């Protein structure tokens, strides 16, 4: 039988990315948290953490974190039938991983009513859509939104739709860097905006236009900052269409290749045996996301899309939720 105080310490250290912050969350001293981790390792006879910065769970640690996620979700379901288990009546906290562009556009509108009705508090971990599945594999989250279709063992994957991106730049940037029609070779020689080291969307977009190789780029790990830098003429970038409908219409941003967007399918991954709350959330997302996401013609990771749809067809105002 596991001592769940010890497992809670492991979960807190991983989620809070360190012993000090984990101690603050648990209301313990840092040595007490460290002692609980050592006691857990002594009892199971193997390490559960790699003492790095931040601490990383071992394979055994990941399995224990997955177990903790399952227990928390199943306990929530049990409270419906055994109310005495709900000691303080507080809302449940659900830890999820999501990409920054989804968080900046459709996510809030899609889950707001659900969180209210189900009395759920969200603990969101923001990661690039290409890598957030790692969080689920590590047992850090109960579900995630990512661009990877293939589910993990013991998990399910559901296609939510596709996020449409457009290659844009300011009018001033176009005048400074391009003469005549923009070509893939020209754009590769002008500074781009890239979200971070794990963001290969610009690379794949250029490859779809026939260019493969390196290119100049700034790193900007902020969805809001990405748009501000594009508007200021710092670089060109691929931006979610939902975020820039107004800028495209008033001319603050211009598409570099007319009617040549790229669609990134987004998948919802969640553990199979994780209780009713994730099942209901999955059903809710599948029903609501078509208001904002494109229904892709293919489930390929990247696919060229069609022309710019109207805001009415997208089901969003000119200023989408941020």
From TrEMBL:
GO terms for molecular function: DNA binding; DNA-binding transcription factor activity. The keyword Plastid does not apply. InterPro entries: ArgP, LTTR, LysR_HTH_N, LysR_subst-bd, WH-like_DNA-bd_sf, WH_DNA-bd_sf. The keyword DNA-binding applies. Residues 2-58 form the HTH lysR-type domain. It comes from the Bacteria. Keywords: DNA-binding, Transcription, Transcription regulation. Belongs to the LysR transcriptional regulatory family. This is LysR family transcriptional regulator. It comes from Pseudomonas cremoricolorata.
């Amino acid at each position: 039988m596991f001592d769940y105080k010890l497992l809670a310490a492991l979960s807190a250290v991983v989620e809070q990315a360190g012993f000090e912050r984990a101690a603050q969350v648990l209301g313990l001293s840092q040595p007490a948290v460290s002692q609980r981790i050592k006691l857990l390792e002594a009892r199971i006879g193997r390490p559960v953490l790699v003492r790095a910065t931040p601490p990383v769970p071992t394979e055994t640690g990941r399995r224990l974190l997955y177990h903790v996620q399952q227990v928390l979700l199943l306990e929530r379901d049990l409270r419906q039938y055994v109310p005495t288990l709900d000691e303080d009546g507080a809302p449940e906290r659900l830890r999820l991983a999501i990409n920054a562009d989804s968080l900046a556009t459709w996510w809030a509108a899609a889950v707001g009513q659900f969180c209210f009705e189900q009395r759920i508090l969200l603990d969101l971990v923001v990661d690039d859509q290409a890598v957030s599945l790692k969080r689920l594999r590590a047992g850090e989250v109960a579900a995630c939104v990512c661009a990877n279709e293939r589910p993990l063992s013991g998990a399910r994957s559901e296609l939510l739709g596709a996020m449409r991106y457009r290659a844009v730049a300011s009018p001033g940037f176009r005048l400074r860097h391009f003469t005549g029609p923009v070509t893939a070779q020209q754009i590769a020689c002008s500074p781009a905006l890239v979200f971070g080291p794990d963001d290969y969307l610009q690379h794949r977009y250029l490859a779809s236009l026939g260019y493969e190789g390196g290119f100049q780029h700034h790193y900007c790990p902020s969805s809001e900052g990405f748009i501000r830098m594009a508007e200021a003429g710092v670089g060109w970038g691929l931006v979610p269409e939902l975020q820039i409908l107004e800028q495209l219409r008033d001319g603050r941003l211009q598409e570099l290749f007319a009617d040549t967007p790229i669609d990134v399918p987004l998948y919802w991954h969640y553990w199979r045996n994780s209780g009713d709350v994730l099942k209901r959330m999955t059903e809710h997302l599948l029903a609501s996301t078509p208001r904002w996401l494109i229904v892709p013609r293919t489930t390929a990771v990247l696919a060229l899309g069609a022309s710019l749809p109207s805001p009415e067809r997208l089901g969003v105002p000119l200023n989408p939720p941020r």
